[in-house]
């Protein structure tokens, strides 16, 4: 089935035979009774959930915002495949009203941090990633999705783990191995650690991803072959988040983990 799907996809890309390819696959699927399985392929069945934390001071260095969050906050919970899976499943803030105190504290919108609560960031995360996460029964409502992300974030306590192991914001630089080593020896899995590179030879710690399988067991974020490629991060696709280009930190350049700046 996978081969047929891949062959069809090739056709689509190479020749633009969109209708013909879909029809072909649909017929084959009906024929072999695998309609449900192929449907899953089309909607990008995912196998891994990526819990992404960002360091607010670095984000605000990139985006010229001001932040008072001196701990790692949530960026998102992302399935490893698919984005914007269901445009008709709208975000509704009322459905997660009970989670608001935690959302504001642990998943703040760093760009819109005025007195009025902005739901722009959460809406974006829901549309882009939540609507794909719903494939899992454990995440098949908006409330389940956001509460699971908060639960994983608090159980993991990445911020606490780093502090306990003396990885703290500092004017003294770190090597990537120091930071990665602490995370890896504590959680027993490989994280993905990303930096902002303001200029050549400089990097600022920005984002840390920790990965789970569908059963919420921790797993390595990167396979060894992926390790060698510098993936541009999942870049938020609307302005001004779109500038937020984090790239996997370079092992050979010292890492700046910036302390929280006071009010300007
Ligand atoms: C998309 O979302 C709508 C609204 O929640 C829902 O009724 C529909 O079943 C969803 N479609 C898929 C393919 O999940
Ligand atoms: C949002 O959810 C609430 C609670 O279920 C419901 O009453 C309201 O109509 C929904 N709003 C929209 C725009 O769908």
From TrEMBL:
It catalyses: a guanylyl-uridine-RNA = a 3'-end 2',3'-cyclophospho-GMP-RNA + a 5'-end dephospho-uridine-RNA; an adenylyl-uridine-RNA = a 3'-end 2',3'-cyclophospho-AMP-RNA + a 5'-end dephospho-uridine-RNA. SUPFAM superfamilies: Ribonuclease Rh-like. GO terms for biological process: RNA catabolic process. InterPro entries: Ribonuclease_T2_eukaryotic, RNase_T2-like, RNase_T2-like_sf, RNase_T2_His_AS_1, RNase_T2_His_AS_2. It is found in: Endoplasmic reticulum lumen; Lysosome lumen; Secreted. One of its GO terms (molecular function) is ribonuclease T2 activity. The chain crosses the membrane at residues 21-42. Its main location: endoplasmic reticulum. Keywords: Disulfide bond, Endonuclease, Endoplasmic reticulum, Glycoprotein, Hydrolase, Lyase, Lysosome, Membrane, Nuclease, Secreted, Transmembrane, Transmembrane helix. The active site is at residues 75, 125, 129. One of its GO terms (cellular component) is extracellular region. Belongs to the RNase T2 family. This is Uncharacterized protein.
């Amino acid at each position: 089935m996978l081969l047929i799907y891949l062959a069809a996809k090739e056709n689509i890309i190479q020749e633009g035979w969109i209708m013909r390819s879909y029809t072909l696959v649909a017929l084959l699927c009906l024929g072999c009774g695998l309609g449900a399985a192929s449907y899953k392929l089309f909607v990008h069945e995912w196998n891994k959930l990526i819990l992404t934390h960002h360091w607010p001071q670095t984000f605000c260095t990139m985006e010229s915002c001001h932040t008072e969050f001196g701990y790692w906050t949530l960026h998102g919970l992302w399935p490893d495949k698919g984005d914007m899976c269901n445009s008709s499943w709208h975000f509704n803030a009322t459905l997660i009203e009970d989670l608001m105190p935690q959302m504001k504290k642990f998943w703040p919108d760093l760009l819109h941090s005025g007195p009025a609560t902005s739901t722009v960031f959460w809406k974006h995360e829901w549309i882009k990633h939540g609507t794909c996460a719903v494939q899992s029964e454990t995440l098949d409502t908006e409330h389940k999705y956001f509460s699971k992300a908060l639960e994983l974030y608090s159980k993991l306590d990445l911020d606490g783990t780093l502090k306990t192991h003396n990885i703290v914001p500092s004017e003294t630089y770190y090597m990537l191995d120091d930071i990665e080593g602490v995370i890896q020896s504590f959680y027993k899995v490989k994280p993905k650690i990303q930096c902002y590179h303001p200029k050549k030879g400089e990097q600022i710690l920005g984002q840390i991803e920790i990965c789970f399988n569908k059963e919420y067991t921790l797993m390595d974020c990167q396979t060894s072959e992926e390790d060698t490629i510098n993936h541009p991060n999942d870049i938020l696709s609307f302005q001004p988040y779109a500038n937020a280009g984090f790239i996997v930190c370079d092992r050979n350049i010292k890492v700046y983990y910036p302390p929280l700046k006071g009010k300007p």
